[in-house]
Amino acid sequence: TELVSRLDAIDGNDQRNQVLCAAVLAAMNIAPVITIHLDFGRDNHNDNDFVIETERHQSALADVALLVSELDQLQLEGALQHDYLIASLNVFGRTLKKKGMNGRDHNSGHHCMWMIGSNLKGGVIGGLTPEGPNGEYIAKPINSATGAGEAGGDIGYDETLGSMGKTLAVAAGVSAERADEMIDSGKVVAAAFV
User: Exposed/middle/buried for 123, CB within 10 Å: 0-12, 13-18, 19+?
Assistant: First the structure.
């Protein structure tokens, strides 16, 4: 069939080929979760002027766009008959002011996640403020109803990982009640949904 032909055309295990394979496997309904590796820069402590980080981010984002395009095309062709959710999580941030060994140091004051799916709104949830130690950027509390990063938000930094987990679960079709049972901190960020 057409999907098997698409798999036959894959000629390696690089990032682009993983994206093409993931789209076909999603259309084949092989598994509820498909994991691929996208290189967003790895450990960049020694990346002078962030040259490698910039190149890898651009390449990874281009392949995310390719994945979305492939999945959308497969839906148009009728091969993919369900919605999809794409997500990536980084459990710690990087210093944005202080450079360590000519690169970025780890920063436990923030982290990020991105998600793409049919039931999600485009936009940014949360935000940063330069109020951490030595003026370094840290996460603002999040208002779950609006998604704004703001003082007085109902999701403090210590609850953001739980909130990301709950929001991801609901985006994947789990009920908010079940997400609350599975994850004991945070809350669903309602502002993320259409």
Answer: exposed
